[in-house]
């Protein structure tokens, strides 16, 4: 184990941090040392990883001395405070918060889509928002073959995207669903003035509202998609909705391609041969993606692919993925793996 | 009470039938006699309505002798077997199944949208599908003022649309949600080969699939909207999805209007002054429609109204309504009330 990278995980006790550690082990990521970092509150906790016991340390600037790769998933404030400290000390930061995603010096990367952007990194690479990642995985192969003009997406997002407290809130409310007396405190946004029940409900607000009536989550989907796909002029609009599902985001997506005479089979074939995508689309066998069955799976699942009844260039599809894996932890690890493949992280 | 109509309710023990009876009383519908009809299985049951006890009778052709108005909500097979029997005996049938909706001799009516179509009735009037009704209520005032070119809708439909057994299935699964061992038997479609859990899941199938990959539910939304709005050429596409919510359908709707330079305020004003619509759209106060709060309310709730970021004529909105009320029972009663107002049902 002496040959390998020194890897730090910031937010090691969180839902995404835990998945990052799981995936580092599962994918045999070549680490020699693992530094598990978190807030002061969690410091001192013992965590077992692949048979070895680790003590969680408080994340401070000096934690990153000698670190090769640092995964951040402890919230935007921690990333803003510490990501540059880490990169100044020579670590490449893979940041899973929104802190740097739209920063022009920070590549925003989904390896299947824009791995080449990694070469422009200046120490920090941003992992896109969960709902964006799964969508661009499906859009990119279509764009490469047939062009892309317009995207309209409505999401069905799981509560785990809002953290462990939100999962707990749904669980408690689900158990009390008949009594109808939940006391919501977390969703839609912990810091917001009003909270609404999620069990037996759907909430058309994820994150805070901006002045144009779109939420920050919707802006993330629209802006990040343009940036990842290098399509600043893409016509794209999102409606993001929280549903009472623990894990697995679903998306109803309408697209218009550029080229004429593209058939349903063209779209299905392009998606079937794309990396990281599993097409589940046999309606006659009721075969289509669902979050219940996508949990703990790495792929992005695409189905219900249909030609629009009136627009020759329009298609509809249904995209589901585990928001904690491809939507977060897995994509972060894949970024690190791509840094090695591309020779940006020097072999040790 | 001798002055009034003889009213029959077929399917009086079902979820919609019960709501029809409730609304007949609540709205003081002028009935003199109420005949509560159902299948042989339910015959003999006692039901109390507004202080009077009624015995459920088996629905047979002869049940409709002397009946003025018959509300049908006992499934398409019963409507196909008995609706014409009822109308042949002089009753006006208001049918809440899909049996006659696309029949060219049967008006398909949402009173706020196409009350005038009632004058073409030949004994049977169809009540549209729940998900269609709430959408056309919002689309029609916009169409009247600004024209309508394109509609793309993704639904978040409640399980009560699939009947009492589906509600029970969600309840049982919600209570056992942590164990992850539900045994689905009803959803997505009782008669289908495969059944999937709905608690902690979303199912992108409502009703059966047709050869073009769209479901029958999606075809209903597309075809019924064109018929109700008399817009056979309208570009419309639907993706219909079941979510773990008991009552209240939600819809994420994208539209393109005809006229140029229509503002967000224009759309909001037109909707605010439309009958049967309540605009809930103050994002800064987290004020928007949700199914949890729409239950047992008569109106169609519209919010999250936004201008599309790239299409000058494009707008997004979020529409929620109680699928058992405006989506079913209430609209049926409103059709009967309109028949009186229009002089089609003669005053007694």
TrEMBL record, chains A, B:
Record: residues binding NADP(+): 13-16, 41-42, 160-161, 182, 323
SMART domains: Semialdhyde_dh
Source taxon at top rank: Bacteria
Main EC class the enzyme belongs to: oxidoreductase
Protein EC: 1.2.1.11
Binding positions for substrate per the UniProt entry: 157, 242
Domain Semialdehyde dehydrogenase NAD-binding: 6-121
Pathway annotation from the record: Amino-acid biosynthesis; L-threonine biosynthesis; L-threonine from L-aspartate: step 2/5; Amino-acid biosynthesis; L-lysine biosynthesis via DAP pathway; (S)-tetrahydrodipicolinate from L-aspartate: step 2/4; Amino-acid biosynthesis; L-methionine biosynthesis via de novo pathway; L-homoserine from L-aspartate: step 2/3
Listed GO MF terms: aspartate-semialdehyde dehydrogenase activity
Active site: 130 (acyl-thioester intermediate), 249 (proton acceptor)
NCBIfam families according to UniProt: asd_B (TIGR01296), PRK14874.1 (NF011456)
Family: Belongs to the aspartate-semialdehyde dehydrogenase family.
Protein name per the record: Aspartate-semialdehyde dehydrogenase
Gene source species: Psychrobacillus mangrovi
Taxonomic lineage of the native organism: Bacteria, Bacillati, Bacillota, Bacilli, Bacillales
